[in-house]
Amino acid sequence: xxxxxxxxxxxxxxxxxxxxxxxxxxxxxxxxxxxxxxxxxxxxxxxxxxxxxxxxxxxxxxxxxxxxxxxxxxxxxxxxxxxxxxxxxxxxxxxxxxxxxxxxxxxxxxxxxxxxxxxxxxxxxxxxxxxxxxxxxxxx
Amino acid sequence: xxxxxxxxxxxxxxxxxxxxxxxxxxxxxxxxxxxxxxxxxxxxxxxxxxxxxxxxxxxxxxxxxxxxxxxxxxxxxxxxxxxxxxxxxxxxxxxxxxxxxxxxxxxxxxxxxxxxxxxxxxxxxxxxxxxxxxxxxx
Lengths: 140, 138
Prior knowledge:
The structure holds two protein chains of two kinds. Chain A has three helices and five strands, in the order E-H-H-H-E-E-E-E. Chain A is α+β, with helices and mostly antiparallel strands. Chain B is elongated, with a radius of gyration of 16 Å. The interface between A and B is large, with 36 and 43 residues.
């Protein structure tokens, strides 16, 4: 069953609590080419660490059998983060995804989502707003 | 960033970053984004892409260094981009070169807005790329 505009408003259960660690911050920073000393000077996560935290929520969307999406046919069209506080080692957070809007143009499905990230005290940490484009495989 | 003198029109030094297949492998592992279009020519071709492309989040995360290497990450208010053109990363030992220049385009109550100009081989790869850095704690 494919995704339709009627899926707008669907909200997923919060992801399992995720603990931000210094090791993971350094690993992501290194993958982004950040200088090693950077983490020592500014012991907070890189701005796009939000994607690591949001990733299990995105995966739940991509693998939702109700939507019929295929990871290898998805590209990221835009991404926005709004930060309330920077992620730091020791933070334990959950991510809750909502489908905001779905547009279907033939085989192309344009999916807008927002992920709200909260800490253990339920304080808002960041919001990650994304547009994904899924191109459905058309049988030959 | 209250300590630094900033004004609209100020441009930070251009950041240059090379993205190779090794960079993609490293980013896939670090981020958990295992979409095969970022490592498999076959999967990329099946989606009509010209070749294996960089993760959007890798391009986004690399580009913001043009600002964070000077001002840090702790005071960011927002960061958003549109992925206007895929960054194709050939398996030729050279890869792709990303060039990013950040220019201050607004200073307001929220903070200082930097607009990023990110190009690969002269082509713009990010649109509406804006980073807002707050004033921090008083």
